[in-house]
Write a structure and sequence with these properties.
Elements lengths: L6 E6 L9 H12 L4 E4 L4 H4 L9 H12 L3 E6 L6 H6 L26 H18 L5 E6 L10 H15 L2 H8 L26 H28 L6 E5 L8 H4 L5 E5 L9 H19 L3 E5 L18 H11 L2 E6 L26 H15 L12 E4 L2 H9 L10 H13 L5 E4 L10 E4 L9 H10 L3 E5 L21 H4 L1 E8 L6 E5 L3 H4 L4 E3 L6 E3 L11 E12 L3 E6 L8 E8 L2 E6 L1 E3 L1 H14 L14 E8 L2 E8 L5 E2 L5 E5 L5 E2 L4 E6 L1
Parallel strand pairs: 1-2, 1-8, 2-3, 3-4, 4-5, 5-6, 6-7, 7-8, 9-10, 9-11, 11-12, 12-20
Antiparallel strand pairs: 13-17, 14-17, 14-18, 15-16, 17-21, 18-19, 19-20, 22-23, 23-27, 24-26, 25-27
Helix pairs in contact: 5-8, 8-13, 11-12, 14-18
The structure holds alpha-D-galactopyranose and zinc ion (ZN).
């Protein structure tokens, strides 16, 4: 049984260096020194693999795979559909994508093929079959890297027909479609499916049901494309795991659905480190690690990160000393079983010649970046036993793709930006700072394993979601819902009868209207002078006239309640207690935070887009109330990340300092796998302890 180890390596594009074969030997020497044990190979190699139609040249790849294997280096082998040979576009223009303006692309770029083209799908099947026949059983090949960063959409006639077929299967009749999309609006009724066109600035953009279904179709069509790619490997009898590298919310695909069709989740992480506060970037990155872990609820791969600077961000910011190792450790802390780079050898020309790489044009081993990579390699070796361990969480934050698409597609209540992403990350951050593992889930995920669930801005309720929340609270869970929730159904049609739809009794209120604030505007969330809130702590004056207000105990000691911006919802309580009120405007004194006891559980409703401190202070109380055990009893200084992974009864605690100053933490009992045992953490330093 192979000893557990963490992957270290990255994208390797030797097809760019075939005219300089000696480069491979230098690279292998460097890989060994940096403890690089895995390369992702052939991602953009199609033109070298099939230089002419039907002529496959794979010998060069076999020589490279063999040399890597002889040196103990494994291969994640790519299917090359992310970029195709010129001859293919020349001969089969249908493979080139058409944009919403109905303009067909010229050859160029990448990740821009038609998702439907039978010709492209057939060419991809063939090259994938050639690769799996030749290399599928090679002992070096551990996994399949399916295409690269799927994303985008095609509006070509083939995709239009596929969309209409998808709609027929979904709705059955055109009347059902008209009803679901409310097309009586502006006389947009369709007489037939043939009349349906994808959304376009030249045509239809006011039927939100169409826009939402188009987003779903594009996501489904892309996932189907990926499935067909994997089928080619499975039909050849190959069972090695397949992954598709994801990238933030880059590609318009519902990752939770996509994850059902691949074996291992992986993603490409490019944080913009070294802005105002490292730990804020660390928290944003932690959120995405938790999204990716949540897709399969098992270890994932950090497939790409830059060893130096990216070259596509606004500035090519160098990673300061220690940043690379800290970022790699953070991925492992959040459930990655490998930390990989883009890329291992810097390209010589074209768009990425200035993108960070392990080995640069100078080729030496004495570069700062190379030395940092070696340090990360050592760290991954020291903590290698963590591989395969899981990340358990009792708290979760809801982040739902369809909900996001629907909200972003709607007109109102704030076309200047709804700040959905920020609202989700504020809840995630408030729980992480308490030293908890946090899962990020979508509306379809089960809630039973959690004691606390935060669900910001669930504008669209999927089928069955409200019933699930009801059961969860009834059975003793603590659920936090916020403003602008339970407004529309899965077709972006407003529920009739009040909101949050299906949950007005669970939350003990009805949301009546919502105020969109200008960017410069602000209101406040203050304590209501009410016995029910006495237990929550100190009093404080509120800006509202004559309001003696009391609030959640502010961690930072400020006395004026909490700021809220962008959206303020006005609700009418029925059975809910009002814990805090608005401080200003015509709705001063109206509820801003409410609690309803329902069954054995508690349902909280936050009415406005509150500042981070509000969530920090509120969740500290609710997590304690919910009896969730924290990873770490000690006080966790701001900017310190604490995570835990568990395997076979062992618990691994990761503590990292993302501040720019030293911190001292009281370490939990156990053996130190990596880092200092004295609890003193310099900036970017971390420690990994196997708890007894
Ligand atoms: C993406 C791609 C890579 C490379 C990097 C550069 O993640 O997957 O091919 O272009 O960006 O940062
Ligand atoms: Zn198309």
């Amino acid at each position: 049984m192979e000893k557990a180890y963490l992957m270290h390596g990255g994208d390797y594009n030797p097809d760019q260096w075939l005219d300089m074969p000696e480069i491979l030997e230098t690279d292998i020497e460097r890989f060994r020194e940096a403890k690089i044990n895995t390369v992702s190979l052939g991602i953009f190699s199609w033109a070298k693999l099939e230089p002419r139609e039907g002529v496959y040249e794979l010998d060069w790849m076999e020589r490279i795979i063999n040399r890597l294997y002889e040196n103990g280096i494994s291969v994640i082998l790519a299917t090359p559909s992310g970029a195709r040979p010129h001859w293919m576009a020349d001969r089969y223009p249908e493979i080139l994508r058409v944009n919403a303006m109905r303009q067909r692309s010229l050859f160029g770029g990448r990740h821009n093929h038609c998702l439907t083209s039978p010709v492209y799908r057939e060419k991809v099947q063939r090259i994938n079959t050639e690769l799996v026949k030749r290399f599928g059983d090679h002992p070096a090949v551990k996994m399949w890297h399916i295409s690269n960063e799927y994303g985008g959409e095609c509006h070509c006639p083939l995709c239009q027909d596929a969309f209409r077929k998808w709609l027929r299967e979904k709705y059955g009749t055109i009347d059902a479609l008209n009803d679901a999309w409310c097309t009586a609006f502006w006389s947009h009724t369709y007489d037939s499916f043939e009349q349906v066109e994808s959304p376009s600035p030249l045509g239809e953009e006011s039927i939100m049901g169409l826009s939402l279904d188009w987003r779903r179709f594009v996501s489904d069509q892309t996932i189907d494309f990926m499935e067909r790619e994997i089928d080619a490997l499975r039909r050849a009898g190959n069972k090695k795991p397949a992954t598709a590298n994801l990238m933030y919310r880059f590609g318009g695909i519902d990752y939770y659905k996509q994850a059902e069709k691949f074996d291992i989740a992986s993603w490409d992480s490019y944080p913009t480190w070294h802005r105002e506060k490292e730990w804020e970037t660390a928290q944003e990155t932690a959120f995405w690690h938790d999204v990716i872990y949540g897709l399969k609820r098992k270890p994932f791969l950090l497939m790409e990160s830059t060893p130096g600077a990216t070259n596509w961000q606004e500035v090519s910011k160098l990673k300061k000393p220690g940043m690379l190792e800290a970022a790699a450790l953070q991925s492992i802390a959040h459930g990655a079983d490998g930390s990989m780079y883009f890329q291992l050898r810097k390209s010589r020309g074209a768009e990425e010649k200035f993108h960070g790489a392990v080995i640069d044009h100078y080729d030496g081993r004495d570069t700062r970046t190379f030395q940092e990579v070696c340090a990360a390699g050592n760290m991954l070796e020291l903590v290698g036993e963590v591989a395969g361990s899981h990340k358990e969480a009792k708290a979760a934050v809801l982040y739902d793709w369809e909900n996001c698409w629907a909200m972003e597609g709607a007109k109102g209540p704030r076309n200047e930006g709804l700040h959905y992403q920020e609202s989700v990350e504020k809840s995630h951050r408030a729980l992480r700072r308490l030293g908890l593992n946090v899962d990020v889930i979508d509306q379809r995920c089960p809630l039973d394993g959690y004691r606390f669930v935060a669900a910001p801005m669930q504008y669209l309720f999927r089928e069955g979601f409200s019933e699930k929340v009801r059961r969860y609270v009834e059975n003793g869970g603590t659920f936090v819902l916020t403003y602008w929730s339970g407004v529309v159904d899965e077709n972006d049609r407003c529920f009739l009868g009040g909101r949050p739809h299906g949950l007005m009794d669970v939350f003990g209120l009805r949301a009546e209207e919502i105020d969109g604030l200008y960017d410069w505007e602000e209101n406040r969330i203050c304590r209501k002078n009410d016995d029910a809130v006495k237990e929550l702590g100190a009093d404080r004056d509120c800006a509202a006239e004559g309001q003696r207000a009391e609030g959640v105990v502010r961690g930072d000691g400020r006395k004026d309640g909490y700021a809220c911006k962008y959206l303020c919802e006005l609700v009418k309580p029925t059975t809910a207690e009002t814990l805090m009120v608005y401080g200003e405007d015509f709705y001063a004194g109206m509820p801003a935070l409410l609690r309803n006891v329902f069954g054995k559980g508690r349902a909280y409703y936050v009415c406005a887009d509150a500042e981070q401190a509000f969530y920090d202070d509120l969740y500290e109380k609710l997590v304690r109330e919910a009896g969730i055990e924290r990873i770490f009893d000690g006080q966790i200084p701001e900017g310190v990340e604490v995570s835990e992974r568990t395997k076979d009864g062992a618990s691994y605690v990761f503590i990292q300092n993302f501040n720019r100053h030293r911190v001292q933490v009281a370490l939990p009992e156990g053996s130190v796998l990596y880092g200092r045992a004295d609890g003193c953490l310099e900036p970017l330093e971390g420690v990994v302890i196997r708890k007894n």
